[in-house]
């Protein structure tokens, strides 16, 4: 069937209106997700990165990925798990990038300690240094293993972790055990390097 | 269940994630319990090192509403508003964006719509002028420094999006693009575009908060620049019509391109040429907002002397001129005839960003051609071949 020009433009307008309505709906869905998950994603990243500003930047990037992804409200799309997976992935990337940017690991860590030693109690510095090493160890590991550890130690259940990483819940125990052993190995290496 | 448990099961038991049958075995098997105690000591060490990851009730996060505003301001504005988007990933245009941010600072903050009924002046782009400015020392304003963050927060918390542009839609040809965008799109006839995309119109409003803006100027060390009291509370509304972008050659896909990876753009897309067209955005501001005075303050802020800024300001009709600041020592520009009018060619010698942008205005439409290559003649020829 051939449309005449008027029908054609009406059809075009209708199509554009439908596209516009769809965009509006999609934006509403996105904003609902943002409202629901913002605090969770931000807090997870704030703890991972130890820097509120960087956490906010990475959290915004996480939601930008969601915005690009344009999820439809399908029941099988586990939005919370998806966001946590992307956030941890970006968070680990940020830790690695930060290291590359600064070109520091332990040398600068020591400098940093020296610079701030006068201002902070020794026990606080030690805690900060331990955390920094733990973050570095996470960044050196296989990303999937790091994500698993971050998710577990931030308090997620095996079921939620399995959903976020598209794994079977029964596989979490063995994978977690391996990840913890790998973490200890990396952490131990860092301790050795520090000495 | 009589079979001893695996380490992974013992590990799961520590998290209370063991199934009932295995749990029953563990409760009655001293060998498994002994192994679990050994495992627990290992896990405890890891748990101690990673305890900082545990989310607690007291953890706070910035408000989701403010963050959502910041999201639209920082992510969608920066990444999705199309006008010269890829061209403007160059350092040149990041500087331009920086300057625009400063202007936004000067003309900024939350919408008090009570003032919206004042007599308005209308600003519309009819011509383009370049002003070379020294941006040294200003980069922290647009970077991650504390001041940059404050400016960003000031701007993002103040803007009310009245209409979002949505996502770009693909057009088949000039005719299709014209229908979708609502203005007469002109594309070169002697070459075929690899992609034509149309972005919907958008609009936003902001209201000037003189106190906050002046405080930021003071914090930036420029308390000598004093914003006039008359601008406080003035509502400024910006309307951005639908725009089109036509790509020629191999260009990055706007939906997947990661702008943070600028370094390799010229190697990845050496033959990419982008033509953008947009009817002039319009800015409505109360008549008592003296744009020339504000512009002079902005120019002084960028490092011009008071006399230089005053001279430049007097030479411009601020109601009809798009002023493009370029870095004084890192870019050059020249005016030349294109498409029957006078265009401005801005060039930047660098290997990690677009080398040139050709901008002109004709019949109320702002045109720009940018390329990651070095052949500016190609852009001039393309401009002259528009029907």
H/E element string of chain B?
Answer: HHHHHEEHHEEHEEHEEHEEHHEEEEEH
Strand arrangement, largest sheet of chain B? 4-5-8-9-15-14-13-12
Total domain count of chain B: 2
Largest sheet of chain B: 8 strands, antiparallel
Please indicate the percent range of residues of chain A in DSSP E strands (runs of 2 or more): under 5%
Number of domains of chain A: 1
> Radius of gyration of chain B over alpha carbons?
28 Å
Based on Cα principal axes, name the global outline of chain B.
Answer: elongated
Q: Number of helical runs of chain A?
A: 8
Biggest β-sheet description of chain A: none
Secondary-structure element pattern of chain A, one letter each: HHHHHHHH
Instruction: Quote the distance from N terminus to C terminus of chain A.
Output: 80 Å
Shape of chain A: globular
Mean pLDDT of chain B: 73
- Rounded radius of gyration of chain A (Å): 23 Å
Low-confidence stretches of chain A: 1-17, 103-117
Q: What this model shows, in words?
A:
The complex is a heterodimer of chains A (195) and B (387). Chain A is mostly helical. Chain A has one domain. Chain A contains eight helices and no strands. The N and C termini of chain A lie far apart (80 Å). By secondary structure, chain B is of the alpha+beta class. Chain B has two domains: 7-53, no CATH class; 64-384, no CATH class. Chain B has 13 helices and 15 strands. Chain B has helices at 7-14, 20-28, 30-49, 64-80, 91-106, 139-142, 146-158, 174-181, 210-219, 265-268, 291-301, 306-314, 376-384; strands at 120-124, 127-133, 160-163, 169-171, 195-199, 202-207, 235-240, 243-248, 273-279, 282-286, 321-327, 332-338, 341-347, 356-362, 365-371. Chain B starts with 6 loop residues before the first helix and ends with a helix. At the A-B interface, helix 1, helix 2, helix 5, helix 6 and helix 8 of A face helix 1, helix 3 and helix 4 of B.
